[in-house]
Amino acid sequence: MASCWKFVGIVMLRTLHGIISSRERTSSPGLFTQRINVFDTTEITFVKYVNNRFVAGGAGGRLGYSTDGVSWNITTSSFATTVIWDVAYGANLYVAVGASGKIATSPDGIAWTQRASGFGGTSIFAITYAAGIFVAVGGLNKIATSTDGLTWTQQTYGLTGSIIYGIIHDGTRFRVVGTSGRISSSVDGVTWDHIVTSGFGTSQINSIAYSTNKYVAVSGDGKIGTSVDGVSWTQRTNPFSGISIRDVDFGSDIFVACGNNGQLAYSIDLVNWTLVTSSFGISNVNSIAYGTVSGFPGFVLAGEAGKIATSRVDN
Description:
Layout: E1 33-34, E2 44-50, E3 53-58, E4 63-66, E5 73-75, E6 84-90, E7 93-98, E8 103-106, E9 113-115, E10 124-130, E11 133-138, E12 142-146, E13 153-156, E14 164-169, E15 174-178, E16 183-186, E17 193-194, E18 205-211, E19 214-219, E20 224-227, E21 234-236, E22 245-251, E23 254-259, E24 264-267, E25 274-275, E26 285-293, E27 296-303, E28 308-312
Antiparallel strand pairs: 1-28, 2-3, 3-4, 4-5, 6-7, 7-8, 8-9, 10-11, 11-12, 12-13, 14-15, 15-16, 16-17, 18-19, 19-20, 20-21, 22-23, 23-24, 24-25, 26-27, 27-28
């Protein structure tokens, strides 16, 4: 979510929405259906499932929400025409982040107020809430934390020349990904440990997702890496063929990754990845989120030209 666009969607807290079962899973993401476009042709940079609703936003300060993934409402974001990159929910507050160091908060996801972030004019690409704190990440090695979403403290990342694009919490540690194949982790969002070799080389890692003892990270040059501990990573053969993979999420025991040219692929075992039809044609799919779609487990895609599509998971 490369140039002025992050090309990830964001990455946000990948909580375990999946249906737990002792039988062997044969899930697939299901058939994706395009939905009525309330974003017009505005690029949607992210979609996220937080506090039992989907929230999507992007270029021109556009922000919308949906309780079922199908019907969407546009809100006034307070970002004016600034790109919005991500949103999180915690401490009874929605927090949205974007370009030019902007952060806004809302008690209901509808009325938004701008806050001082401490990022200056540096873009904030991702945010999550876990363990009682918000952690926001962005350009110029910047990371900031907040217990209430209102007052922010800049922290020291420890690596120079970094742009951090994605963040999750795996129940124990925050984990961030970014440029030059960097993956780092922290217990408290303050002190960060850095993985020496991620297997991504100098690739820009756009997004990371987590399920129990399973991590998947994806890159701007079509790489998919997996790990069982978040430390040792294995590169996987995948059908993206070098095309940028912008986001990845987990739900109903499957990981689903999306990217340029409408590409979409899923995996049950982390090793084998299967292409599925996104319904985006050749439009870029910037982001994916798992949640409740019309009362059933499912995924929402969002991306280029304001497109949104939904699916119900096939079992």
